[in-house]
Amino acid sequence: MIESLLVANRGEIARRIIRTANRLGIRTIAVYSDADADLPFVREAAEAVRIGPADPAQSYRNADVILAVAKERNAQAVHPGYGFLSENAGFARTVESNGLVWVGPGADAIAAMGDKINARNLMAAAGVPVAPGTPEPVAGVDAALEAAAAIGYPVMVKAAAGGGGMGMGVAADEAALRTEFGKVQAFAERMFGDASVLLERYFPRVRHVEVQILGLADGRVVALSERECSVQRRNQKLVEEAPSPAVGPELRARILAAAVKAGEAVGYRNAGTVECLLDPATEEFFFLEMNTRLQVEHPITELIHGIDLVELQLRIAAGEDVTVPAETTGHAVELRINAEDPKRFLPGPGRITTWQEPAGARVDSGYTEGNTVTPFYDSLLAKLIVFGADRADALAKAEAAVAGFAIAGPKNNLPFFAELLENDEFRSGDYDTGIVARMRGGK
């Protein structure tokens, strides 16, 4: 087993990884920026090393500094969490070339799935359903207009190097496409250093369903189960539940089999997620992207399977055989508690003057009372996770947990969740990615 682990991340996911590693007797090394010096994950690691100022480019995205700390502190392995360097193929390759264990998929798989056009074409060749779209980057606006006419409006304009809902726009006609193409291209160049853009058919009513996969040490790829992720604002997830209320046994078998094909196509190893769009009217599903890392919403899969995915990640990275139970029980729901206002979802950082977690729920938090939420990073404060015998039981527990969670100081979206959990559309289970917009007066 791995004996020492550097956690190349911050906040709740760093704390989450450290908790499992500590339980397994692994020496943990945290890295932190000046803005995070007082956060819980820094105290809970066996060792903690300052790596730079608040700016992520000078700290959590500074691969050279993080690698230097790993070598200086004799770390045997590096866990990247999610975000920052987690899907950076160059960093993964450098970690391994320096004799350290990378707790994640191989660099080639990360690179293959990081380019959305390449990923789409790989999946199509492997027999995984893909939505109608462009197999190559669109050369310019004129080429985009021509492609959109063949695909049919509305179309999704996507940054080829994007992910996690970033770098996307929807165009319902030619005029909108001209506008969205320029916006997405500029955003992609600024954020990813790659202005390549592709088009896909946009489905106005669609659900976002994903499958947790594990690439095992012996080369096999297994699919655990699916998660429903359709409650979103600006293409960013707010609520996830497992299993999906939209997926029955026959559809589940098809979507899990496709996820295994996706993993096998790139020789996948360790934890990953195959994301799909599901047309609830026809039960057709299409490959969206593969996240080559641990997902934010992994706890709901853990609860219905009775496993620890971080532990499985570490054991797979160490070359151990692991047992993955296929059976699931009950229903789990995760709510992302963010430092943002509950109406427009704009960030609202500040010092936490009250932090009282509810009883009877799992809370994976990055902060506690007295900490300051800064504007430098993602607004996620904590993940509120509940498990019930069935969906109705889980939703009742979620309502109680939201009512029992007290946060003061920064803005937070707990009032939104109280509203959502009373929403008839959400409670029915028959909802789609437009539910938040409809709750806020949109279509």
From TrEMBL:
Record keywords, A-Z: ATP-binding, Biotin, Ligase, Nucleotide-binding
InterPro entries on file: ATP-grasp, BC-like_N, Biotin_carboxylase_complex, Biotin_carboxylation_dom, Biotin_COase_C, CPAse_ATP-bd, PreATP-grasp_dom_sf, Rudment_hybrid_motif
Domain Biotin carboxylation residue range list: 1-441
Annotated transmembrane regions: none
Signal peptide annotation: none
Record-listed E.C. numbers: 6.3.4.14
Coiled coil: none
First-level EC class: ligase
Sample GO molecular function, one term: biotin carboxylase activity
Claim: Heme is one of the keywords in the record: no
Span of domain ATP-grasp: 120-318
Protein name: biotin carboxylase
Species in which this protein is naturally found: Actinoplanes siamensis
Organism placement in taxonomy: Bacteria, Bacillati, Actinomycetota, Actinomycetes, Micromonosporales
